[in-house]
Amino acid sequence: RRERQRFVDKNGRCNVQHGNLGGESSRYLSDLFTTLVDLKWRWNLLIFLLTYTVAWLVMASMWWGIAYLRGDLHQAHGDAYSPCVANVYNFPSAFLFFIETEATIGYGHRYITERCPEGIVLFLFQSLLGSVVDAFLIGCMFIKMSQPKKRAETLMFSRAAVISQRDDKLCLMFRVGNLRNSHMVSAQIRCKLIKSRQTPEGEFLPLDQCELDVGFGTGADQLFLVSPLTICHEINSESPFFCLSQRSLRSEQFEIVVILEGIVETTGMTCQARTSYTEDEVLWGHRFLPVMSLEDGFFRVDYSQFHATFEVPTPPYSVKE
């Protein structure tokens, strides 16, 4: 195998990094919610903890500041003196009062008195700010946990693609499978051929994308993915592999990107799984081993043979030849 840079890894990760954004990096802040969702889990948890910690300390300091300015910290809280917040004598007690208010615990030992208008205003501000922070951060964590990226890990692609004859036609084929019993609703498959080329005007396109027909006209691209399926691309005069032969395959350099999309049945969210095949992972004159068998009234799928292929007689010539 010739190791080279891939556009899309086998696990579906795109090897593209954005650099030299300049002033365009401010666009990430304009869509802060999506930026936080896209961050890695360790950064999400760090931001989550820091935001709540800083907000708690700032609000507790404001309650302590009101008590300090009114002189409540050095007065006895009895019937003769009405403080702003009863039983707040220092910063820890102010912090506990804030937590009781924010979490609506209400132990009853600390409370706002009616002779403290600034405390009432701060209480309203705390309630509004707490609702906004909770909605933003908890919503961000919920969206991140419910993302269907992990569902894509239970969608399988064969490690290699094959070229052989089917129905007297030369075809490029690969296999897809679903490891879960829950179905992918409205599953659809798409293929892109990524290959460098030069236009007649002399322009060089390093990553030119070309669509591979996997049954758009016949509806074969709409999958009923309850068992492993073999996806077929017919190599004809309209295919970019029209001039591809067994010999020329050794000197070609291309990448086939496969995109499988569908709706997760249990959550209703759209899921996308990706993989790619380089020219080294296309086997000429091979066919996939069967994986389906009938046993006692049900069909059994043997995933140990999912990636297995065997050689079949296949002409080494291109369709054009």
Outline the structure in words.
It is found in: Membrane. It is a multi-pass membrane protein. GO terms for molecular function: G-protein activated inward rectifier potassium channel activity. The chain has 321 residues and is of the alpha+beta class. It has 2 domains: 24-146, Helix Hairpins; 150-311, Immunoglobulin-like (Sandwich). 28% of the residues lie in helices and 27% in strands. It has helices at 26-30, 32-38, 41-70, 91-102, 117-145, 149-152, 246-249; strands at residues 155-157, 161-166, 169-178, 184-198, 204-212, 222-223, 229-234, 255-264, 270-278, 282-284, 286-288, 292-295, 298-301, 309-311. The strands form 4 sheets. Strands 1, 2, 3, 7 and 10 form a 5-stranded mixed sheet that branches. Strands 4, 5, 6, 8 and 9 form a 5-stranded antiparallel sheet that branches. It has a two-stranded antiparallel ribbon with strand order 11-14. β2 and β3 form a beta hairpin. α2 (32-38) packs across α5 (117-145), α3 (41-70) packs across α4 and α3 runs antiparallel to α5. The model has no long low-confidence stretch (mean pLDDT 86).
What is the structure about, briefly put?
Residues 155-320 form the Inward rectifier potassium channel C-terminal domain. This protein is α+β, with helices and mostly antiparallel strands and 321 residues long.
User: What is the chain-wise order of helices and strands?
Assistant: HHHHHHEEEEEEEHEEEEEEE
Main beta sheet: strand number and arrangement? 5 strands, mixed
By DSSP (H or I, 4+ residues per run), the number of helices equals 7
What number of structural domains do the residues give? 2
CATH topology of the largest domain, by name, is Immunoglobulin-like
Mean pLDDT over all positions: 86
Number of strands: 14
Cα radius of gyration in angstroms: 31 Å
The CATH architecture name of the largest domain reads Sandwich
